[in-house]
Amino acid sequence: MNSVYPKKIQLLASQHWTPLHITEMAAEFLTPEKNAKILDIGSGVGKFCLGAAYLKPEAYFFGVEQRSELVSHADLARKLLGLKNVRFLNCNLTLLDFRRYDHFYFFNSFYENLIDTDKIDNKVKCTPALYNYYNQQLYKKLEGLKPGTRLVTYHTLEDHIPPDYQLAESHLSGLLKFWIKIL
Ligand SMILES: C[S@@+](CC[C@H](N)C(=O)[O-])C[C@H]1O[C@@H](n2cnc3c(N)ncnc32)[C@H](O)[C@@H]1O
């Protein structure tokens, strides 16, 4: 799967893009019904969405990503793979209405605001204040969704998830968590 991307993108995979075996488990949980619409919150070069769209052809996968260059890589990979059930949006997640989607995937997208090294690139502003702001925005958006909404978190702290999301499954010593909104 990494081979659909240029070398410089492949080199970022181990740290920044979801491995395929994680995608497989997450996609299974996130598609309880046919035609489910799933949003990857911070989709990078689209690796999660593309893998999941291949595995679940009856579901629709959407990625929102702030870096336009990564969205271009995602779109190119989508065309190479010939997948019809996946789309990428180039904007900040704060601008998106989450109520348009059924279920969500989140791979600790804001962490780069807390570190000085190992960033994807230096093209976006990263600060601890933005880390807090994005987490608050995400929390509010998740709070506003309907009961039954599913969420998969990977490498993400529990205190960023509203309390009405019940933990349904935990894998890999808690690195991968499956949640369902109960209220
Ligand atoms: C760890 S990568 C995960 C990529 C993808 N979800 C995957 O699993 O392969 C997180 C991505 O979130 C993006 N991101 C971070 N903050 C964002 C924001 N506020 N709005 C949109 N994208 C954001 C970053 O640019 C980065 O590409």
From TrEMBL:
SUPFAM superfamilies: S-adenosyl-L-methionine-dependent methyltransferases. InterPro entries: Methyltranfer_dom, SAM-dependent_MTases_sf. It holds the Pfam family Methyltransf_31. Residues 33-104 form the Methyltransferase domain. This is Methyltransferase domain-containing protein.
